[in-house]
Structure formats: structure tokens, C-alpha cells
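Project outcomes to date are best conveyed with an example. Our students and postdoctoral researchers have been running inverse folding experiments weekly, and each run begins with a structure described purely in C-alpha cells. The record below, which covers 633 residues, was selected by the lab manager from last quarter's runs and is presented without edits.
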């Protein structure tokens, strides 16, 4: 069965993920819901142990500040909501800007900030036809045309061209390398105008309630950046930060160039012609490119330079909270091949009884699952090593086949040298072939018995096993150890409130948590997942698995609590330069092994009916005992 890519947001630019101003259910009037997770952290940080001593299940007592606080009132947390940030990307094409932008947007949205990407290239393609602004585009379209049995477009092989112009809609907006020539005054004027128009859209979105806007463009000239700075001076309570992506690694650049030949600018164009045109575009950009530096420092503008995908980071004048979050996240990126496996623990005794929370041991079925899980990861670890080696060999062959015939385009400003010799080509191939899956493989569990017992069949000599309290299941407070039926009978108001707003609802009692609390609790786990350079298996719980997958797959937190993640499934997310690739396996108890299934059809979101059950009716929400061991799953 195939996997599925999660690249750009599947629910792009949706409603705010994290409503900081409302935690808990103030209408219920209970004192503990008036204290957000920030207040609990402050109590713990001041030496009080009420939260820490309530249960071994309770989260760690860590002093954490998610956003600048103004007041903490009864039933709500008010924040400095006027503080907004504009992130302006800088860098040559094929330097990983889009990769950085998508990851950054996904992380900030998951944290709860309203974040949106404004891509200048998309608007540029609608700015006007290639015939109107560049005559050289005709040459590209003519040379790049493929043979087709149908009546093709005059610029590409796509059928269905207009009878009069003989061009399809895509070719009418295609811009060749000549459009990016700095000496082409008319084209330069159009590019600057488009960039400023997108910036105006960005500012209007911020004024309408957005928090973090990302201007995704090259912005490679001092003049362009100064124009954006000048425009932003007219806005109040909006900070500006440049993020420049610099790449000196020829391997990464050449691979990015190969990916660029599949961009909307080259639909229907022969790949070799598209690559030659894109390299010509790069040379045009390099003529005008000026790195962020002294000119911006004179204006006291914040900036961050990411060199070789996080190998080196330069930060200047970083002051605000949002800016520090951006820099902190960008410092922990890497492109090493690895897989992030996520699974729930094996069936526990409480699962079999339908009880939530607690710290029960595994049932007989759970122990059987644990053994099968260890065997599966042993096998997949070897299979993935072979896949990576084969992929690197193919990439090396592809790059080396063109390295001697196509001059490199790494700019002197970035300190790179063109791979224009046979010795360089050989070195490139050897470098790629040496890249293997890192020998380390970690297994992370929570501090609860059912996850630690699930991991006890892994060979400690081959796997580094870590028990992490942040991966503990969401704490249900007074409802710990109860079934949903019992909760509905004993706390009917709580049961109804949870169905009305499952993400923000906080369980009653000291230490009771909401999904919003879990997001903050897992922030450091997410950063660590981005930092590590080897594969990892997370054996955790349903709420944790939902939260982690919501980040990796860019699913809004409003949908996250309704994701159906039964026992017996393994979700494998492989970070790739163009997005996260997801594969899913399901445990088959008859085979005592895992079977790969279709990933898109697996991730279902359940929308429960909002109704208060009677004392004798079955709970409308799934029980934590829901399992994949039955044939129907």
C-alpha cells in the first residue's frame, strides 16, 4: 500500500489553532479551570508541589511562558494579542526557503499562533503573460515542447490550447530566465510591484487578526528589503524579521534544482531544458544578490541566517518572544534520512475495562503486540537502511551525470565552488554514498507502565530506550480511572462541556489537562524530534499520538481531538525535503505481524454528536479500550 505526502497545509490558513484567551470552561465556575497551564507552571516554579504530588501521571512542573502575559483572570488568560510578526524570507532560489517556510508555518500554527504564508512566486505567475513581458520566453517554450499525438499547446505538451493563441493557461503566465535578468527593467519593475502587492495583502491579513505572516520570496536585493522596511514603518505593533537561507552544500543545491524542474514554471517542459533555464535564472539572481548584513544592521532590523539547513545559525538583534521562537526552532533542523514511528501502547487492563487514565499493566493481548512491535521495528530498520542507500545511489548518479556538462551556479557570496571537474563529480558521488542511516535508533516511552512494558522486548544493546514524562497520557483529574459512562453519570455537565469543545476542555480537579495543555507539554518533544539525526519510535498514548501526528501532518488542532487512532497501528512519518511522507501499518493478530494499509483512508476524523447520554445509554465517544485487534478494523 502506498503512503501519502503532507507538504503544504492540508487545511491551509484555517481558524486560529490556539485561543490563548480562553482556557477551561468558565461557565462551570470551578476555581481550577480559572488557572491556565501557565498559572500551574508558576505555582510549581515557586516551590509548591500541589501539581507534582497529585499523581505520578501528572506532567512535569516546568516554568514555561508561551506568550507575553498581561493578566490572568478568572476563567481566561489575556495575552499581548497586539504583538504581530512579519517574517521576510531572503535567499537565492534552490536554497531551501520553501522547505523552511513550510516547516516554520506548521510549527507556529501547531503552537497556536495564527500563521499564514504569502508566496510571491504564485502571484508573479499571474502578473502577466510571458509574451507581454519577455520575448525570450518564446524560445524556451519552443525548444522545450514535447511531441504529442494531440493538438498540443505551442509552449508545452498540454492539450486543450486556445484556438487563437495556441497556448494553454499555464504557458500564458510562464516566465523564463530572461524575466529575472536584472538588466530587464520592465520585468524588474513587475517583480518589485508584485512583491509589494503581496506585502500589502500580508499586512491586511495581520490587521484582520493574524499574528505571524511569512513573506515567501527571494528578496535578494538591498533595495527590495529597504522598500519592505519603509512600508512597515507605517504600521504599529508589527515587528519585522529577515530569515535568510544560505546553502554552500553542492549536493543539496543540485538536488533542489532537480526538484525545481517540476515547479509550475516548467509544467510540460522537457526536464533538461527546464534545468538549463533554471540555472540561467540562478545566474541572473546571483548578479544582483546581496546577503543580509551591514545595511540592515544600520537600521537595527532583526535577522537570522540559516546556513546549510541549520549547521550554522547567525542571529542579530533578536528581541521579541515570537522572534525567539522562530530562531529556536530553526536552529534544530536537519535533512538526515530518518523515520519517526508513532504507536500507542499495547492493550492494557484498563483498556479492556474501558477506563481512562490510570497506570495499569498490559493485558495478554498487549504483551503479544509488544513482541510483534519489536520484531517489526527490527525488520523496518534494515529495510529503511537499504532504501536510503539505494536512494543516495540514484541521486549520485543523476547529479554526476549532469555535473560535468552543466556548470554549477553556487554564488561566490555563498562560498561554493562549481562541480566542473571529474574529480569533483567523483567526490560528490562518494559523499552521497557514504550517507547512511545513523546507527542510533531510539525508543521513547512515557513514564507509565503500559508504555514501558510495550518497549521491554527491544534489545537494549541495539536501541536507546528513554522514558519521558512529557509523553504521559492527558491527565483526567477527578475522572482518572473512570469509564465515559461513569463520567456521564457522575459529572454530566463536564461530559457535555467536553463534547462541546474537546480541544480546550480541561478535566476537573488538580492537574486536570486539556489538549491545549498537551500541545505546550509536547513542545520540547517536537523540537527534539526535529533535532535528532536518526530514527525514533514513540510508544505513547492516544491523546499524545493525536497531538504529535497533528504537528507532523499539519492537521488543525480543532480537528486533532477527533482523530481516530485505535490501538494496534503504527504511523511512520519520513521527513523529506519536499514534505513529510506517511505510511501506516496495522497489527493483524492472526498473523501476529503488521500489514501496510492505505495511509489517507486510515486517518479518520470522528465528529461526535453533541448530546448528553442517559444513565443507561452507551457513551457517544469512543472508549480508550477501542482496539485494532478485531477483524472489523
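After processing, the design step wrote out the following sequence:
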Amino acid at each position: 500500500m502506498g503512503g501519502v505526502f503532507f507538504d503544504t497545509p492540508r487545511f491551509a490558513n484555517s481558524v486560529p489553532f490556539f485561543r490563548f484567551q480562553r482556557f477551561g470552561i468558565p461557565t462551570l465556575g470551578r476555581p481550577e479551570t480559572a488557572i491556565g497551564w501557565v498559572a500551574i507552571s508558576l505555582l510549581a516554579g515557586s516551590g509548591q508541589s500541589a501539581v507534582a504530588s497529585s499523581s505520578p501521571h501528572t506532567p512535569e512542573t516546568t516554568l514555561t511562558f508561551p506568550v507575553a502575559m498581561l493578566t490572568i483572570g478568572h476563567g481566561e488568560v489575556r495575552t499581548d494579542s497586539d504583538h504581530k510578526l512579519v517574517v521576510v524570507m531572503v535567499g537565492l532560489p534552490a536554497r531551501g526557503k520553501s522547505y523552511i517556510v513550510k516547516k516554520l508555518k506548521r510549527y507556529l500554527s501547531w503552537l497556536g499562533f495564527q500563521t499564514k504564508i504569502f508566496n510571491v512566486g504564485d502571484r508573479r505567475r499571474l502578473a502577466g503573460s510571458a509574451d507581454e513581458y519577455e520575448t525570450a520566453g518564446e524560445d524556451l517554450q519552443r525548444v522545450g515542447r514535447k511531441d504529442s499525438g494531440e493538438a498540443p499547446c505551442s509552449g508545452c505538451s498540454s492539450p486543450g490550447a486556445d484556438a487563437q493563441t495556441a497556448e494553454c493557461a499555464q504557458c500564458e503566465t510562464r516566465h523564463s530566465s530572461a524575466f529575472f535578468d536584472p538588466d530587464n527593467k520592465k520585468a524588474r519593475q513587475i517583480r518589485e510591484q508584485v512583491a509589494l502587492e503581496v506585502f500589502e495583502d500580508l499586512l491586511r491579513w495581520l490587521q484582520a487578526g493574524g499574528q505571524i505572516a511569512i513573506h515567501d520570496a527571494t528578496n535578494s536585493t538591498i533595495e527590495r528589503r529597504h522598500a519592505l522596511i519603509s512600508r512597515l514603518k507605517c504600521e504599529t505593533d508589527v515587528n519585522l524579521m529577515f530569515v535568510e537561507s544560505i546553502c554552500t552544500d553542492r549536493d543539496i543545491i543540485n538536488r533542489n534544482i532537480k526538484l525545481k524542474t517540476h515547479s509550475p514554471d516548467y509544467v510540460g517542459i522537457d526536464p533538461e531544458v527546464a534545468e538549463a533555464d533554471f540555472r540561467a535564472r540562478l545566474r541572473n539572481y546571483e548578479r544582483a544578490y546581496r546577503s543580509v548584513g551591514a545595511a540592515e544592521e544600520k537600521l537595527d532590523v532583526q535577522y537570522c541566517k540559516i546556513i546549510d539547513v541549520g549547521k550554522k545559525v547567525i542571529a542579530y538583534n533578536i528581541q521579541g518572544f515570537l522572534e525567539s521562537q522562530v530562531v529556536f526552532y530553526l536552529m534544530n533542523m536537519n535533512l538526515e534520512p530518518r523515520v519517526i514511528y508513532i504507536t500507542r501502547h499495547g492493550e492494557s487492563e484498563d483498556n479492556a475495562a474501558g477506563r481512562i487514565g490510570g497506570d495499569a499493566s498490559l493485558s495478554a493481548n498487549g504483551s503479544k503486540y509488544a513482541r510483534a512491535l519489536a520484531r517489526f521495528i527490527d525488520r523496518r530498520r534494515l529495510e529503511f537502511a537499504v532504501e536510503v542507500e539505494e536512494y543516495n545511489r540514484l541521486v549520485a548518479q543523476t547529479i554526476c551525470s549532469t555535473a560535468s556538462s552543466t556548470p554549477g551556479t553556487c554564488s561566490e557570496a555563498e562560498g561554493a565552488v562549481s562541480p566542473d571537474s571529474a574529480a569533483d563529480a567523483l567526490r560528490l558521488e562518494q559523499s552521497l554514498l557514504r550517507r547512511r542511516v545513523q546507527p542510533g535508533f531510539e525508543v521513547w516511552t512515557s513514564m507509565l507502565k503500559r508504555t514501558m512494558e510495550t518497549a521491554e522486548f527491544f534489545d537494549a544493546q541495539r536501541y536507546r530506550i528513554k522514558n519521558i514524562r512529557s509523553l504521559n497520557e492527558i491527565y483526567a483529574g477527578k475522572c482518572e480511572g473512570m469509564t465515559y459512562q461513569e463520567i456521564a453519570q457522575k459529572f454530566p455537565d463536564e461530559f457535555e462541556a467536553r463534547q462541546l469543545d474537546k480541544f480546550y476542555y480541561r478535566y476537573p480537579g488538580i492537574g486536570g489537562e486539556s489538549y491545549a495543555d498537551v500541545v505546550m507539554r509536547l513542545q520540547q518533544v517536537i523540537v527534539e524530534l526535529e533535532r535528532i539525526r536518526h530514527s525514533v519510535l514513540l510508544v505513547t498514548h492516544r491523546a499524545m499520538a493525536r497531538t504529535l501526528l497533528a504537528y507532523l501532518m499539519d492537521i488543525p488542532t480543532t480537528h486533532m481531538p477527533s482523530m481516530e487512532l485505535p490501538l494496534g497501528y503504527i504511523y511512520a512519518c519520513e521527513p523529506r525535503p519536499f514534505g513529510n511522507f506517511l505510511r501506516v501499518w496495522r497489527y493483524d493478530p492472526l498473523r501476529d505481524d503488521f500489514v501496510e494499509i492505505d495511509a489517507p483512508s486510515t486517518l479518520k476524523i470522528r465528529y461526535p454528536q453533541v448530546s448528553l447520554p442517559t444513565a443507561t445509554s452507551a457513551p457517544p465517544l469512543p472508549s480508550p479500550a477501542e482496539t485494532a485487534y478485531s477483524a472489523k478494523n
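The mean pLDDT is 76. The longest strand covers residues 579-588. The training component of this project remains on track.
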